[in-house]
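Private note to self, pasted from the team thread so I don't lose it. Backbone tokens:
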């Protein structure tokens, strides 16, 4: 025999009831079945609202009652049609009229006592079971079965306790008689959620109690299996409404299911498992809307593959109370006094965390119990509180996050993985609790962090791929090249176990944000269609609201306004990847403040492309210092633009014409004066100087500018090249002087002895710096270790593709740094 239970979501419409009938009839062809049903979706709430209005003598209860009438009559007509529904409609009308009389009695009384509310609530299941049994009966013999005839409870109305001895006997007798007196054996359709006292008073066994009814019947009748049909594919690893990557667990143990249910999983009523556990009856959670899905089997212990954790769940709406004081140290009985005081007020404690010797006792309760709990504790410890020997702290708006899994027992590092993941993402933990069974590790956090915490922990335990969301600011030459590289390299990234999604783009005027990802084949159209004005601080807030687990801003601009918003991005838990040098050349105190904030928030800042485009210059100097080496001198060509210009400048072509050609090829900044002024080289020297610990400012660097003073100001336009050409003779004279010495000209940056300078310098043709080609950078590190033969880094140092590849390399570094 199988027991099949269908919840309200499975019975929301006549169409869904037809689907339920197909499932039942298919099951009945193989095995005898008993069906347990809830009220139609939302009806129980409607009934209780009717009672609430009636208790207030509000005549609107009549209108609410008529809505209930209309809904059930409509379903009858749709399922059976007018010709075949007369008998059923008469039975349903009798129940609906009885309901009306009960509501009228509540109105006259001016009060809805628990006993009356239970009676009102019972009509939902009674109407549902009556209609569904009639519908099934058209295809196969089916009978309405009122659970009040065999489920016996005490008189704790609204949450009655089942008296199992009487219930088991009466259930076996009821169904034996039903099956004996009817041939072929009919399908009983049982009212879930309700029972009755020994003297026949209607009771309910708790909201969502239809699961409980199914388990009670399954245990009493020795069912082979209890199937719980709902609106999800089974028990999931997390709430799919919060964690998009949640997946169905093929099987879990009774103990895991109980822990998950207690800590907020919505699939099962916690009490529903107990009767099944007592008889060793497995439960199968299935999806009414996808009956072909295998579902989740809940049974006794067994291996569940290599997954130690089985589910992540949460309970919100909590308050954390902490009782602490030196007077409690070494004094036995404080915990007993505390929890006795709470129990006397009927307050349920959901989580307890205690420091040694009862010095501090922390416990979580429902927000609705906070005032009563506070009063109870203050009354019990009034003397200690009066003399300030003890204090009571209250923290509201808290959520419990629980990681559950039978196989976590005896495996080190589970707690470390959970708390380490939360810590890395700057989520503060208010309290921690772990049971002796090691099956459940719980912590309390601020409720606004609930969604992020669930995603973070789920990713830490279940994700096989590392996920990274990117927002790219600046979609010019470098940004555009980066987006192309990300699009082309997607298969490579996936093969490495990296899921990189570009969730947003911005230029100087507008931005677009889409948490599901932007198609990198059509990103230009997406951005052009956006009407959202670009403001970096607003952008940071909006990205933060997405509560992403791992995300980074990629700043491909040269804009100071974006850098000024870096602290906002950091506080939004966004890592930063950038070729923009402005952050590293901020005034010293502002620079230190940013670096401190990055460390405090545990946010990565990748800036390899700040110096040398795609060359490993930044990582080289950091590695040298980290290994204990001492930087004595750094010298070389730091500007790919100036390298290109002086490598081509042999007197055959005027210098101004070379500058114009470089600009057309995209080898200069949009305004080439940024390169010619030497400011770019100065920034790079300052960046390297600060890596060595120097507090140098940009003004401390002596720079030779190649831009005449009268051309250094004003807006850049193409006329600049004509005006700049007037000074070609000066550059040509400087070149001829070098050639007379068999030397070449190069624009060099030098960092040595706490000083930095940049300018034109002559090199003999045999010198390595003279041998550079194209837009090569060459940087020589003279250190304590490399004192006689400098360590040289050389390669292309300009161009959108090269710089974008440096940024892409930083994205890969971040992915490798992020934990599994």
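Design output:
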């Amino acid at each position: 025999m199988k027991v099949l239970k269908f919840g309200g979501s499975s019975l929301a419409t006549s169409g869904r009831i037809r689907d339920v009938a197909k499932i039942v009839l298919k099951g009945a062809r193989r095995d005898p079945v008993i069906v347990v049903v809830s009220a139609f979706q939302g009806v129980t709430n409607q009934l209780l609202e009717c009672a609430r209005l009636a208790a207030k003598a509000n005549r609107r209860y009549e209108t609410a009652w008529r809505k209930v009438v209309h809904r059930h009559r409509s379903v009858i007509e749709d399922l059976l049609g007018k010709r075949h529904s007369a008998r059923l409609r008469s039975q349903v009308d009798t129940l609906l009229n009885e309901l009306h009389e009960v509501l009228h009695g509540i109105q006259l009384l001016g009060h809805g006592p628990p006993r009356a509310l239970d009676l009102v609530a019972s009509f939902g299941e009674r109407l549902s079971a009556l209609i569904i049994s009639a519908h099934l009966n058209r295809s196969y013999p089916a009978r309405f079965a009122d659970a009040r005839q065999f489920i016996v409870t005490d008189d704790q109305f609204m949450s009655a306790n089942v008296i199992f001895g009487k219930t088991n006997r009466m259930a076996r007798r009821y169904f034996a008689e039903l099956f004996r007196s009817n041939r072929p054996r009919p399908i009983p359709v049982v009212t879930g959620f309700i029972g009755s006292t020994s003297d026949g008073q209607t009771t309910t066994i708790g909201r969502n109690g239809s699961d409980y009814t199914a388990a009670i019947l399954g245990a009493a009748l020795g069912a082979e299996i209890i199937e719980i049909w709902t609106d999800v594919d089974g028990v999931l690893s997390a709430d799919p409404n919060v964690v998009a990557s949640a997946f169905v667990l093929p099987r879990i143990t009774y103990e895991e299911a109980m822990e998950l249910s207690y800590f907020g999983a919505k699939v099962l009523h916690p009490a529903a498992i107990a009767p099944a556990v007592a008889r060793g009856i497995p439960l199968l959670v299935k999806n009414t809307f996808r009956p072909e899905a295998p579902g989740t089997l809940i049974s006794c212990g067994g291996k569940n593959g290599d997954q130690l954790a089985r589910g992540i769940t949460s309970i919100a709406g909590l308050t954390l109370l902490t009782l602490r004081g030196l007077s409690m140290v070494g004094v036995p009985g404080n915990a007993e006094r505390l929890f006795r005081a709470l129990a006397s007020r009927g307050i349920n404690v959901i989580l307890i965390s205690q420091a040694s010797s009862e010095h501090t006792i922390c416990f979580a309760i429902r927000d609705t119990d906070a005032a009563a709990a506070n009063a109870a504790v203050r009354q019990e410890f009034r003397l200690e509180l009066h003399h300030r020997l003890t204090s009571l702290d209250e923290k509201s708006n808290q959520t419990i996050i629980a990681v559950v899994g039978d196989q976590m027992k005896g495996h080190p590092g589970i707690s470390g993985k959970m708390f380490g993941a939360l810590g890395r993402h700057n989520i503060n933990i208010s309290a921690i609790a772990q049971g002796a069974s090691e099956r459940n590790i719980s912590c309390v956090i601020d409720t606004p962090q609930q969604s992020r915490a669930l995603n973070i922990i789920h990713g830490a335990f279940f994700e096989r791929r590392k996920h990274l969301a990117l927002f790219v600011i600046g979609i010019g030459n470098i940004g555009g090249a980066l987006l192309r590289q990300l699009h082309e390299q997607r298969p490579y990234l996936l093969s490495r176990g990296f899921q990189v999604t570009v969730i947003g783009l911005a230029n100087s005027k507008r931005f677009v944000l889409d948490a599901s990802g932007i198609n990198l084949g059509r990103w230009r159209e997406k951005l052009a269609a956006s009407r959202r004005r670009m403001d970096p601080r607003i952008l940071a807030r909006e990205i933060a609201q997405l509560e992403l687990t791992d995300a980074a801003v990629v700043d491909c601009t040269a804009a100071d306004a974006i850098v000024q918003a870096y602290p906002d991005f950091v506080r939004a838990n966004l890592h930063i990847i950038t070729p923009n040098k402005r952050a590293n050349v901020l005034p010293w105190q502002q620079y230190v403040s940013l670096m401190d904030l990055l460390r405090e928030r545990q946010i990565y800042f990748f800036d390899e492309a700040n110096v040398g485009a795609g060359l490993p210059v930044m990582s080289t100097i950091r590695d040298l210092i980290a290994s204990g080496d001492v930087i004595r001198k750094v010298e070389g060509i730091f500007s790919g633009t100036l390298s290109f210009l002086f490598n081509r400048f042999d007197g055959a072509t005027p210098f101004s014409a070379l500058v114009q050609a470089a600009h057309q090829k995209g080898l200069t900044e949009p305004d080439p004066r940024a390169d010619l002024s030497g400011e770019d080289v100065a920034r790079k020297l300052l960046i390297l100087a600060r890596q060595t610990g120097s507090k140098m400012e940009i003004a401390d660097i002596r720079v030779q500018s190649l831009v005449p003073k009268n051309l250094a100001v004003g807006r850049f336009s193409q006329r600049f090249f004509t005006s700049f050409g007037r000074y070609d003779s000066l550059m040509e004279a400087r070149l001829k002087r070098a050639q007379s010495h068999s030397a070449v000209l190069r624009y060099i940056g030098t960092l040595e002895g706490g000083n930095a300078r940049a300018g034109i310098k002559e090199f003999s043709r045999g010198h390595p710096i003279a041998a550079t080609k194209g837009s090569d950078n060459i940087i020589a590190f003279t250190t304590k270790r490399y004192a006689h033969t400098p360590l040289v880094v050389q390669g292309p140092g300009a161009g959108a593709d090269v710089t974008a590849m440096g940024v892409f390399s930083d994205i890969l570094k971040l992915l490798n740094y992020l934990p599994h």
